[in-house]
């Protein structure tokens, strides 16, 4: 397919958004023999949510039993570890400790442990504070949940591998190609793509994997019912890096807070530590990292690492999560809305795909593929 050769392109599946989930969908659908085109407004893949995360492979501890997040995280983690091993994507099964730093946190920790068991995370177990300190001597806690199957990953390398697989299977990845609007038809969708040489795309299926732009895209499709477009709230998370060497070799998480998992310590594959994200509810996406937030970060970190030296936190980056509920709402599940949900043929909207979206990417793609192929 050559978009420059015509003002109209015909495909089986048009995917919008070249983040980790959009790329996984392109790979899965192309490998099943469908004609796939993926459209991304930026000049490369992974420029949105996917490039601004903690790069953690989650085990599935936190999510309500029976939820899409729980099922797709657990299945996705298994599939992702196998994929990385088979494709040479850099990753490490570091394990993580979710820590109770006060007696008041113990009940919450026990609830997480029970949730993990209910989700099928078989190897997670509660340990004493003494056992946790044997693993991490710099740690302050009175108990911990040990999750040996949590890990870290090079997310850019993962997206490159997905992109390579998608193209090898015949998918077309089109960059600098913003989807401006579209129309529902009796069978499928027509999309209007901007850029240097605008054109139309007729597709049997639209997979809306546009991340923060998923709701605006759905609203720009004439004939799609507004009542089936999820609410969108922006939760900003800041990250700070640790200058100098970290004393930790595992990931360290506090018990969760409303809107997120708390300011936790993660490691990159070089062993460098970073902290975050916090939660700041904002009106529009903004990626600045105010240096004055370092003081609040330091106070939170010293709950589990009292030895954090002064002046070691350096502003790193910020991400914005697409929340389906606001600050006072309970955490929402992923939404993978196909025709059975909204009644419109040929449209699948992926709403609220935040953490653990990276971990669940292959499982989300499999779910999308099942809808498309029936």
UniProtKB/TrEMBL annotation:
SUPFAM superfamilies: FAD/NAD(P)-binding domain. Signal peptide: none annotated. Residues 12-370 form the FAD dependent oxidoreductase domain. Keywords: FAD, Flavoprotein, Oxidoreductase. One of its GO terms (molecular function) is (S)-2-hydroxyglutarate dehydrogenase activity. The keyword Nucleotide-binding does not apply. Its cofactor is FAD. InterPro entries: FAD-dep_OxRdtase, FAD/NAD-bd_sf. Pfam families: DAO. Belongs to the L2HGDH family. This is L-2-hydroxyglutarate oxidase LhgO. It comes from Niveibacterium umoris.
């Amino acid at each position: 397919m050559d978009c420059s050769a015509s003002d109209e392109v015909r495909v089986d599946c048009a995917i919008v958004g070249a983040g980790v989930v959009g790329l996984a969908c392109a790979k899965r659908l192309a490998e099943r023999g469908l004609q796939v085109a993926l459209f991304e407004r930026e000049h490369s893949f992974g420029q949105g949510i996917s490039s601004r995360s903690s790069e953690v492979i989650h085990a599935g501890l936190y999510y309500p039993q029976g939820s899409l997040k729980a099922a797709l995280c657990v299945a996705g983690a298994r599939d992702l570890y196998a994929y990385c091993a088979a494709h040479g994507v850099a990753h490490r099964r570091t394990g993580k400790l979710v820590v109770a730093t006060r007696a008041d946190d113990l009940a919450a920790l026990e609830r997480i442990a029970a949730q993990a068991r209910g989700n099928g995370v078989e190897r997670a177990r509660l340990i004493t504070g003494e056992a946790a300190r044997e693993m991490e001597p710099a740690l302050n806690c009175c108990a911990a949940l040990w999750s040996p199957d949590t890990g870290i990953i090079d997310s850019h390398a993962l997206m490159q591998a997905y992109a390579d697989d998608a193209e090898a299977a015949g998918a077309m990845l089109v960059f600098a190609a913003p989807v401006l609007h579209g129309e529902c038809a009796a069978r499928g969708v027509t999309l209007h793509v901007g850029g240097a040489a605008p054109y139309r795309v007729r597709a049997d299926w639209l997979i809306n994997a546009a991340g923060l732009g998923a709701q605006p895209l759905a609203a720009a499709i004439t004939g799609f019912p507004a009542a089936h477009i999820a609410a969108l709230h922006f939760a900003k998370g800041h990250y700070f890096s640790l200058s100098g060497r970290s004393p930790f070799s595992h990931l360290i998480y506090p018990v969760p807070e409303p809107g997120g998992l708390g300011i936790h310590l993660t490691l990159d594959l070089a062993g460098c530590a970073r902290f975050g994200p916090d939660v700041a509810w904002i009106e529009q996406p903004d990626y600045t990292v105010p240096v004055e937030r370092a003081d609040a970060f330091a106070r939170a970190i010293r709950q589990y690492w009292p030895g954090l030296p002064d002046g070691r936190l350096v502003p790193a980056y910020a991400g914005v999560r697409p929340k389906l509920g606001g600050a006072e709402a309970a955490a929402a599940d992923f939404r993978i809305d196909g025709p059975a949900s909204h009644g419109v043929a040929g449209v699948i909207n992926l709403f609220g795909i935040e953490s653990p979206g990276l971990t669940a990417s292959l499982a989300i793609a499999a779910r999308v593929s099942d809808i498309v192929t029936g």
